[in-house]
Amino acid sequence: MAYDEPRARDSTFGEELVERAAALPSASAESAFRVADLCGDPLATPREIAEALSEDEALASLVLHTANSAAVNWGPSIADLPTAVVRLGLRFVGATALAAPGLGLLDGPADDLWPARESLHRHAVCTGLVAQALAPAGIDADLALTAGLLHNIGLNLIAGFAPAEFGYLLECGEQFWEAEDWIFGFSHSDLGAKLAAHWSYPADLVIAISDHDIPDPRTPLARLVRLADLLVRDCGIGVEPRQALPPSEEACGIDLEHALEIVHTVLLPYERPKTA
Q: Which end of the chain is more exposed for a tag (fewer CB within 10 A), N or C?
């Protein structure tokens, strides 16, 4: 389907999108944040965390699916949440729970854009896994996972609540932030940071979301997420156009040749052949 050039939105549209996301049923966010808190409690047991997970069907399904995925599965398939929590580890489950409300924004109608929303979800998961795998000393790997999972929540908002504009972004052939600037007056990174701040995410995560599309992110975590995002795009996973990778000195000192080897190992279950 071809999408016409959209009309420019006024300055209130970003606030409207954040309000619409905030107006979604709150149980998902509340249960996800409760699970994340439990995962940070040294006295919490896997069974207690599993009970909290079971209060939200979508979150429980996400954890079970991840525990059985090719990226982390080293044993027989499992169907119970306590075993899934043990297999993944408390910090991994906590990171996934924190990101779940943002990923839940991709739930939408079965329209002609659902394959792109599915690709956005796949890109988020892959970016999180790559950021976690590449996290150097000084950057918490599980925080990197969360930041990678969440980096595109602003684009998730646009995909769900501004479908005509999202369709145009998919077809315009520009870097998304370039087109977003004149359509909305803000980028999906700006929008995601507003939503993350509204949900009271830690400042490190807000900055990683805000800065993941700019050349000089403010923090090491944000630089890592930017690199992971670009590496995953370079593998053909996602909906945004590919973009040149930053030099190593701008990517937390990570050697890009070594990084690409790690990336292809992590993403092997997810990768699709590149198209010309």
A: C
For 173, the token pair is: 């052939």
CA angle 140, 37, 85 (to 5 degrees): 75
Q: Which run of H or E residues covers position 95?
A: helix 90-104
Give the C-alpha separation, 11 to 225, whole Å.
28
pTM over 0.70: yes
Instruction: Work out the angle at residue 259's Cα, subtended by the Cα atoms of residues 258 and 265, and round it to the nearest 5 degrees.
Output: 95
The residue that leads in pLDDT, 7 or 126, is: 126
CB 269 within 8 A of CB 70: yes
Are the CB atoms for 10 and 190 separated by under 8 Å? no
8 A C-beta contact, residue 239 and residue 210:
no
Q: Count the Cβ atoms, other than its own, within 10 Å of residue 236.
A: 14
Longest distance between any two alpha carbons in the chain, whole Å = 55
Burial class (CB in 10 A: 0-12, 13-18, 19+), 92: buried
pLDDT band, very low/low/confident/very high, at 28 (cuts 50, 70, 90): low
Place of tokens 């279950």: 269
Through-space distance between the first and last CA atoms of the chain, rounded to whole angstroms: 21
